[in-house]
Structures are given as C-alpha cells and as structure tokens.
Amino acid sequence: MRKIFVLLFLCLLEVPVLTGQNDPVVDRIIKLGITENKVMDHIDFLTNRFGERMTGSDNYYSACVWAVNTMRSWGMMAEMQEAGELPVGFNRGPWWGRMVSPAEMSLEFGTPAYTAGTKGKQKGHVVIAPKTVEEFWKMKDSIRNAWVLIDGVNTGWPRDRGGESELTALIREAGALGTIQLSSFPVRVLYHKVESWDKLPVLPDIKLIDKQYNEIKSLVEKGQKVELEFDIRNYFRPGPVKYHNVIAWIPGTKYPDEYVILGGHLDGLAGATAAVDNASGAAPSMEAARLIMASGGK
What we know:
By secondary structure, the protein is α/β, with parallel strands linked by helices. Helix content is 31%, strand content 33%. Strands 1, 2, 3, 4, 5, 6, 7, 8, 9 and 10 form a ten-stranded mixed sheet that branches. A hairpin with a 3-residue loop joins strand 2 (77-101) and strand 3. Helix 1 packs across helix 7 (275-294), helix 2 (39-50) packs across helix 7 and helix 4 runs parallel beside helix 5 (166-173). Mean pLDDT is 92; it is low at 1-20.
C-alpha cells in the first residue's frame, strides 16, 4: 500500500539565508521557532484528535482536511489532490483480549490493518494448529469455536499475505474463532490487501507477545484447558475509497519558478496513533511553513 505524502511546496524566498547577512525575517523565524514553536500542537492534533491514519481510513481523510484548513488559516494556498483509490476502506476501533482460565490475564497483541475483527466478544478454548491435513481431520471437532495457535513468528504482515493456505482454509471452515501467532515486543502490525468487498477476510489474525504466547502454548501442551476472550473492532468500508495528497505552497518573489520541497507522509500504520511514523515528520514540515508565514517571508 502506498505511503501518502503531505508536500509543502515553498518557492525560494528573497532572504539572504546563505550569505550570512542579518535579515529581520530570518531573525523572526529563529525567534519564533524557539519561543513559540507549535510542532507539538500539530502532533497532538494528528495523534490524539485523529490517531491512526491508515490509507483508506476515515481518520486519514479527516487529517487531510484538517491539514488543508490549518495551512490555509496561516495564509498559505493549500488543497487536496486525489492520488488514487482503494476497493475497500478500513477503520480500526478498540481492541482487547484476556485469558479467562485457568487464570485471568490481560493480553498484549495487535492485528494487521485490513484483517478481520471479532463478532463482538468471543470466548473459546485454545488448540494448537495441526501441522498437516491428516492431523487436521483427526482434530477437526476440537477446532470449532477455538482460538488456534499457529506456527511462525510475526513479521508484521498478515497471515494470508501470500494467499490463504490449505490448512488455514480448513481451520476457518471448521469454525475456528481466529488464529494466534507469536510476536516479539513491541508488536509490529502492517496491513493486508483486500481486493474487493466480496473477498473480505473473516478469520481474525492475532499477533500475541511471545511471553504470553509461550505461556499459553505450554499450558495447552500439558493438557490444561485454556480459555481466551477477544473483542477486536476492525471495520471495513465499501469502496471505491479515494485517498489524497495534501499540497500547500507559498508563492515566491525573486524566483517564483524555483521550489524548495519539504514534506513527510501524513498517513500512518494502524497499530497505534502514528506519532513516530509519521506525525514526527509531517508536523515539523507544517511548522516550518507556519514560521515562514508568521515571520513575513515572501
């Protein structure tokens, strides 16, 4: 999935930045940047007002509208430009999970974007995934309404990135509640590609931190009954869903046909609030433009 960039097109300003001469505009930019810096305000909006900004999500669209309106309020020219469209959109809601028995424990996990959520709260026993089709048929009845521990280590990508395997299809058809894969901490979650509304994923793809995964697997291997409960609100939106770049610019004076390009991608993966990746890039870019406008740069 493409990263979406917010680009600030800044025409070269008529200020002698490279000559070493003192200039009142440059002095004001430096002073305001030190005494009235708004980078954290921009980050606060992006992370706490919008949060995750996955391409194709409502949060991403809202962040684009906010960025355009904000930069226009500074006196810049700004607009949203259509960059493409996706067949299906995705919005992430809250998620939580816990071990119910043999002891209560809050679970730390994530799911890749564009993968299935649960149907409300779903509780079930735990089984270890069969390694062969023959083994599946021997344990088929135990898979119904179960959380299935699968092999492998989470890389961030979804379970079915290369297509649904035969065993996964059998597990899904047998009525499993979802699969659980071991993940290092912090949990890395990327995204799935959904080609059409009639091919939505239906089997949750949980990435559980290694310590808890290993503890649960050990209990099951010893013959202990383990029950888990998850509530994962992953929502899909019928497409096509258009997504946009945000373009803003300050017209130049001395060299109006030359440009300094500054930017950072405004979208962010849907595992948290997208602060590091990439409010930390988009916000300083916006603040640089604000400082130029507030200082009277032309």
